[in-house]
Amino acid sequence: MPGRRVLRPSTPVLRRAPGEVQYGTDPRWAVRLVGLDAAEEAWLRTVSGPVRAASEHPAVPAERRARLVQVLEDALLLVPAPPRRATTTAPGGGEADLGVLAALRPDGAGHRVLAARARSAVAVVGLGRLGATLATTLATAGVGSVGLHDPSPVLVTDVGLGAYRVRDVGAPRETALARAIDEISPDVRTGAAAASARRAGAAAEPPDVVVVVEHHAADPARVRELVGDGVAHLSVVVREADVVVGPFVRPGLDPCLTCVDLHRADVDPCWPQVARQLRELAAPQHEESVLAGAAASLAAAQVLAALDGTVPRTTAACLEIPAPDAVPRLRGTSRHPRCGCAGPASAAPDGTPLAARTSGGRGRG
Fold it and tell me: Do the bridges between strand 209-215 and strand 232-238 make them parallel or antiparallel, or are there none, so unpaired?
């Protein structure tokens, strides 16, 4: 067996019955081994470190050990030994995320996901409770650069979620949140360097993803430049008693916000004037606790899916998260024939191939 192989991290090994051992509990990949004798059962329950070191057991013949190890190999339970420490900006070396990320990859290399996240940049526009929670979630998950864009002051109603504290009330949201993220994970860049570069007239690298948090109705004009520059972006809209997460737009590939508006106008001819009034509302923009927390988590999941190399579920779809239960509803959308947003894009702005939709998991049937 080439290389040093270990049991997939965070995989529980459980005794089900005499002669029966179970690996894992997630129905997407849990495996049962049956027909074992007592010695084989005892040996399999000790296999957690390097398999070669654990493969010596006097009560289990070498040929049988080899066969059982091959069964574990075929079940994708054995993976290359990871490095002692992942390259990441996440707190605690990313240990909180590493087990899940390893479970989702066929090679178990969760550390590679964390390393890629550390090289990624996401900008969040709109830093109320929802945007602030989203930004801190991304920083905690190991995203190396989290740009913060919202100069409006922290409100008393912002305190709690997203790391705002009473002492932050009145301070610019982007400043207060940058301070909080620095306390959570000092290695995460929060956009101060990019802002300095812009003031000095230097060109800043575009982020990998931009998240725009708005109230009442999305405004396609706000992301028009992103569409033109080929920057992926996610719309999040806080409405009266629900939040809409999506669509996630990869320019040239997915329906854009204008497509969504045009489809809605096809159903409701009055929508354009209604939308215009909603965008002009100047009422206080508060964000209810449960909706803000749930929507921030789902938005973070969409962004991380894109950064990790899969296609977010909200490409060509929106997640509607209603109060009071916050159970999401998925509503599909499509390109509108009058929009013209479909372009010849076949690669990301940096020239790398665009990811194809995957079903998640480790490729097991």
Answer: parallel
Strands 329-332 and 317-322: antiparallel
Contacts of 204 (CB under 8 A, 6+ apart): 194, 197, 198
How many CA atoms within 13 Å lie on the side-chain side of 64? 13
d(CA 106, CA 363): 7
The helix or strand, by DSSP H or E, that contains position 318, with its residue range, turns out to be strand 317-322
pLDDT, one tens digit per residue, over 318-343 is: 999 999 999 999 999 999 999 988 75
φ, ψ (nearest 5 deg) of residue 39: -65, -40
What sign results for the dihedral spanned by CA atoms 311, 326, 273, 271?
positive
pLDDT of residue 230: 95
Mean pLDDT of 162-175: 95
Describe the strand order of the beta sheet including 232-238 as a list of residue ranges: 145-149, 121-125, 209-215, 232-238, 242-249, 317-322, 329-332
Show Cβ contacts of residue 271 under 8 Å, excluding neighbours closer than 6 positions.
261, 264, 265
Nearest to 81 by CA among 108, 101, 100, 99: 108
Report the C-alpha gap between 225 and 232 in whole angstroms.
11
pLDDT at residue number 3: 58
pLDDT above 90 covers a percentage of the chain that reads 67
**In this structure, which amino acid lies at residue 248?**
F
Q: Is residue 199 predicted with pLDDT exceeding 50?
A: no
Angle at 152 between CA 150 and CA 160, to 5 degrees: 85
pLDDT tier at 56, thresholds 50, 70, 90 = low
CA angle 132–133–136, rounded 5-degree value: 85
DSSP annotation of 157 = G
- Residue range 177-189: mean pLDDT, rounded: 95
Instruction: List the helix and strand counts (H, then E) for the chain.
Output: 12, 12
**What per-residue confidence (pLDDT) applies to 339?**
93
* Residue 292 CA to its chain's centroid (Å): 16
